[in-house]
Amino acid sequence: MAKQRFFEGIPLVSNLYADSRKRPGCWRYRWQDGSTQSFKAKTVQEANAFAIEANQVREQRPQEEAPENALPYWAEKYIAHRESIDPKLTVKSSWRGRNRAAIRQFAKQFAGTPVFQLSLKHIRPWWDSLTGNAQRNKKPELNRFCNHLIAEEVTTNLQPHPFNILMMRSAEPKTRVRMSLDDYWTIYQAAPAAGLKYIQDAMALALLTFMRRGDLCALKFDEHTTPDSLFKLISKANAQGKPKRLTWKFEHWPELHRVIARCSGRASANHNCPFLLSRPVDRRIMGDVKAHFNQVLPNQLSNDFATVRDSTGLYVGLDASVRPGLHEIRALGSHLYSSAPNQTAVMQAMAHSEIEMTRHYQSGHRVEDIEIGIEELSQELLGGEF
User: Fold this and answer.
1) 3-class DSSP state for residue 107?
2) What value, to the nearest 5°, has the Cα angle with vertex 241 and ends 238 and 244?
3) Which of 181, 209, 300, 321 is the least buried, fewest Cβ under 10 Å from its Cβ?
4) Do 134 and 249 sit in the same domain of this protein?
5) What pLDDT is attached to residue 345?
6) How many domains does the chain have?
7) Is the residue at 377 inside a domain?
């Protein structure tokens, strides 16, 4: 069941949404096919009245179902089957945000092709149009989906794991530049002037704990803090079936303790927000994924950090796609520990399964000088003079 959404403290009727561009008097209604209808209403009450009438019309409209020989029909059956045998999928962001969407996108792409006719000949042009990263993200779930179609005996033109046969593009290298410690503090000091003081909290937590943005945004006072410690079950490791619960004892982490105390004061000012990261809002609007008005979501955290970063003038000559983001603070934090004798402890703190990944994060911050250990060739061997 979707969480109740509010606008200026007033509950919104189901399927009613405020205008995405925050234009006064503008609203959106979502129909059962996913399409949205924009309309105007002077007050929340008028908008709710419109949505109530639309919901009544919606109930009278017959739900269009895909024919049984269409891929969208089997996509929904597959999704329901996957979620029934693995109920934990429904709470995993990788399933909701990537894998389930990949199945529906694939089914929509070939909605006009009867499922019993689907073959690699149909799939390959679409597959080749994707980027290397998109192919790698979609491949495992699409293979499982096709295996499901084979098991249901609705296709005879595909063999198990068909996407293993198709060629893949090379992965696009990550080109974001590393963040220096001086740049880190320049951005940190610029946050208040940009009206985003909470970014200082996020930057401090990221540098000290190496947490990813999703883990930072999920931190809650009642679930992850005690008077003497901070602890977190790392979501990515948990999703991979290798749960790691990391604990920071404040007696060994006094700076972290001060940052969390500052977060607590900020949360109190933000209507007692239960999350460590919170920010003021102009309007109390809650979407389906927000548990509190002042909660900070991962994408908002990234966007706000970019706003503060760009306000400093740093990296002005670089394209926005290569400027360091919040995630680069994680790499910077690990780099500061690169000379520590116990690199295994650093690897565990970063929730990495292999030390090579930790070393990858630590690399790129400084140039290593290597004196050439061989001597110049003689003129006789060179065969002449330059």
Assistant:
1) helix
2) 45
3) 321
4) no
5) 53
6) 3
7) no
To which H or E segment does residue 30 belong?
strand 26-30
Q: Which long-range contacts (CB under 8 A, 24 or more apart) does 348-356 make?
A: 348/244, 348/246, 349/209, 349/210, 349/246, 350/210, 351/210, 351/234, 351/236, 351/237, 351/244, 351/246, 353/237, 353/240, 353/242
pLDDT of amino acid 13: 86
Q: Is residue 382 part of a domain?
A: no
- Nearest Cα residue to 198 out of 136, 133, 140, 277: 277
Is 162 strand, coil or helix?
helix
Residue 183 in contact with residue 314, Cβ under 8 Å? Answer: yes
Q: Which domain holds residue 239?
A: 181-362
Assess whether 261 and 330 both reside in one domain.
yes
State if pTM tops 0.85: no
CA neighbor of 39 nearest in space, from 55, 59, 54: 54
Domain boundary among 60, 86, 105: 60
Q: 3-class SS at 27?
A: strand
- Residue 99, in any domain of the structure: yes
Indicate the DSSP class of residue 360.
Answer: H
Q: Identify the segments of the chain with pLDDT beneath 50.
A: 1, 237-240, 352-353, 355, 358, 360-362, 364-365, 367-372, 374, 376-377, 386
The residues that bridge with 153 in the sheet, in sequence order, are none
Instruction: Give the model's pLDDT for residue 269.
Output: 93
At 44 the pLDDT is: 86
Cα–Cα distances (Å) from 91 to 33, 215, 272, in that order, read 23, 15, 25
Instruction: Please list the alpha-helical segments (H only) found in the chain.
Output: 44-60, 71-85, 93-94, 100-109, 120-129, 132-151, 181-190, 198-209, 213-218, 221-224, 235-239, 254-269, 298-311, 327-335, 343-349, 355-362, 379-382
Burial 205-219 (b: 16+ CB within 10 A, else e): bbbbbbbbbebbbbb
The alpha carbon of residue 220 and the mean position of all alpha carbons in its chain are separated, in whole angstroms, by: 18
- Position 241 scores a pLDDT of 52
Radius of gyration of the chain from its Cα atoms, rounded to whole angstroms: 26
For residues 130 and 157, state if they share a domain: yes
Residue 386 lies inside a defined structural domain of this protein:
no
Q: Look at strands 6-7 and 10-11 and give their pairing.
A: antiparallel
State how far the Cα of 347 lies from the Cα of 339, in Å rounded to an integer: 13
Residue 57: phi, psi to the nearest 5?
-65, -40
Q: What is the pLDDT of residue 376?
A: 44
Whether residues 240 and 294 share a domain: the answer is: yes
Residue 375: predicted pLDDT: 54
Instruction: Specify whether 151 is located in the same domain as 185.
Output: no
